[in-house]
């Protein structure tokens, strides 16, 4: 029987603690024109505590808004009897004639004072003490839109000495979230529900799970893992390897990125007008045959080569019309030779590819295939090397993947893995084109279909980062770093999903996504991750990279398929940390001294 109760005044009591909402927060409806209506401005508000078969529910109906007479909605706060959970649901009853941009509800719970902190799933994760001296929240990626690097997992939580809560967003593809933390605090976190194709057509729920006193961020992660298992997202590497033997070959390998053809169009943000010669470069396939032979001779026995810029247009150009392989790099014959060389050494071969960025210079570009906003606009930009682009509607992406990869297979290019860029990093798209109308939820399903197609053909699927929605269909990623705006970095994602995905780490200090002043090598060990091998290093630098990889390899073979069950700070400055895995392996690192130890948990 649940100990969560909700009163007629909205007071929440759970696990022996009274939880307060922020009294200064006013739930609101925000419109596309920038105006806002607050819930408490309704001309009529009717509230009642209703007993249901699932528990007591505080149901409140809001209507008769002077600024929007058609708008009518209710909020339900259901204290579920089956578990320590409060479901907060927004239900539209009368659709506004105005364009709604977002619904800001429910009000944030408060967790202020000594020993209180928030757990945020921005990228790999961070803890935010309630009195943290720096402002946090202003620079969350993608304006806080979930199912992107803004939130690898659709939850946040807060911990107090008297108890903790875990807030799980049930339709994260149509939700953004805000973290408000001025310098010194306090912290306030709340959901912003988005319309789907311009309309609020279905209920939106945030579920609050409550944990007792003594619970911490590891407990929050353990509770979410239980939810993910119940809902079928926590598909483990062992399960994935059962259907694709190349998954096992990936474990222990180092990753080396091999550039190919690079070409930057003049309108690109990255075009170098002062030194035009910097806008083009070529590294033939044969260069990487020589490099991997050298590494093999130096004792590297497991390697995954990730080939960038292999198509005729060049890196980040011309997608999705990327074939044939670049003639200047060696064409079909050169690409086959590289694959054959890698396989003769026992190595793995994979390629970079892209099915979201849709370049106007693509050979078969058709504006009608681009996503269209609810208001009919087609978004465009010219940030990347290929210049002006739109976005390919994800409903069409699986067909383009099949078209391109079937041609690669027909030409004898034997692939072990493939990287479909940005799918797990960028926010979900929606499309109002009636020929391929698509919601954000459907967008994620189509992206997953692309990854599943690769697995069905023995190709290990990866994307740029990791994300909860893809844990049933992706195996590894390019990286899963910490955010640039980070309070206390902690591996929240790995505490939930370590045994479901292989995550590579840059080895050096100062690499993007590695917290300032810390070693990527130590983060890789702490997380039981995968090592990068330098593309260019020589001499002692290369030998050190290989030595580090060997240490990582041995640990990864041991723990890749194990859950990370604990993470601890071992000193007040948080420089000494320990992770423990489900097989009993404990990894201790000291970011100040560079020391590390691998052994059995005490």
Question: Beta-strand percentage?
Answer: 25-35%
What is the radius of gyration computed over CA atoms, rounded to a whole number of angstroms? 25 Å
State the CATH class of the domain at 5-230: Mainly Beta
Oligomeric state of this protein = single chain
Poorly predicted tracts of residues: none
Helix content: 10-25%
Query: How many strand units?
Result: 34
Determine the CATH topology of the domain at 5-230.
Beta-galactosidase, Chain A, domain 5
Mean pLDDT: 96
Order of the strands making up the biggest sheet: 6-7-8-9-17-14-13-11-12-28
End-to-end Cα distance, whole Å, is 36 Å
Helices, by number, come to 10
Structural class: alpha+beta
Largest sheet: 10 strands, antiparallel
Note the overall shape.
globular
- What is the CATH architecture annotation of the domain at 5-230? Distorted Sandwich
Describe it:
The chain is α+β, with helices and mostly antiparallel strands and 602 residues long. The chain has a domain of 226 residues: Beta-galactosidase, Chain A, domain 5 (Distorted Sandwich). The strands form eight sheets. It has a ten-stranded antiparallel beta sheet, with helices on one face. Strand 21, helix 5 and strand 22 form a beta-alpha-beta unit. Helix 4 runs parallel beside helix 5 and helix 6 packs parallel to helix 7. The two termini are 36 Å apart. 51% of the residues are buried.
Topology:
Blueprint lengths: L4 E2 L5 E3 L2 E3 L8 E4 L4 E3 L5 E9 L2 E9 L8 E9 L4 E10 L5 E5 L12 E4 L5 E4 L25 E6 L2 E7 L5 E6 L7 E6 L10 E9 L4 H14 L6 H7 L2 H5 L3 E5 L2 E3 L16 E3 L2 H13 L5 E5 L23 H14 L3 E6 L3 E3 L29 E3 L5 H14 L6 E4 L19 H17 L3 E4 L12 E2 L10 E2 L2 H6 L6 E2 L14 H7 L3 E2 L7 H21 L4 E6 L6 E6 L3 E6 L5 E5 L2
Parallel strand pairs: 18-21, 21-22, 22-25, 25-26, 26-27, 29-30
Antiparallel strand pairs: 1-2, 2-3, 4-5, 4-10, 6-7, 7-8, 8-9, 9-17, 10-16, 11-12, 11-13, 12-28, 13-14, 14-17, 15-16, 19-20, 23-24, 31-32, 32-33, 33-34
Helix pairs in contact: 4-5, 6-7
